[in-house]
Amino acid sequence: MFFKKKERDVSKNPFYDSGSTVVVHFQCGKCGEKFRSHLRKYYDISVNYGKGKGAYRLDKEFIGGNCQNKIQIYADFNRAFKPLSFDIIGGKFLSKEEYEE
């Protein structure tokens, strides 16, 4: 008997820890273009000096090749880079499986 791996719930955590980077998959809300971004810890994700509730903060903007729609991703992380809160404007988060379809 084979078990199918349960698809990840991106509403709880859209980020994947990958060693020195955090990976996120998302899709443009206007044209449907799919993105995968490797965000470097301590560079793309910066130390939070008092704003918000996390130890680290992500504030990133993406523009795809198909349209000029801006996709903004905001997140607060704890010291172990687990997301405390996150939001996306102009798109939606995807699981790794949805991205690969």
Concise description?
5% of the residues lie in helices and 49% in strands. The protein is mainly β and 101 residues long.
Query: Can you tell me the residue ranges where pLDDT is under 50 for at least 5 consecutive residues?
Result: none
Distance between the termini: 25 Å
- Contiguous helical run count: 1
Radius of gyration: 14 Å
Shape: globular
- Return the structural class: mainly beta
What is the helix fraction of residues, given as a range? under 10%
Order of helices and strands: EEEEEEEEH
**Tally of extended strands?**
8
Average pLDDT rating: 90
> What percent of residues are in strands?
over 45%
- Largest sheet composition: 4 strands, antiparallel
Describe the structure.
The chain is mainly beta. 5% of the residues lie in helices and 49% in strands. It is built from one helix and eight strands. Strands 1, 2, 3 and 8 form a four-stranded antiparallel beta sheet that branches. The chain has a four-stranded antiparallel beta sheet with strand order 4-5-6-7, with no helix packed on it. Strand 6 and strand 7 form a beta hairpin. It is globular, with a radius of gyration of 14 Å. The chain starts with 14 loop residues before the first strand and ends with a helix. The mean pLDDT is 90.
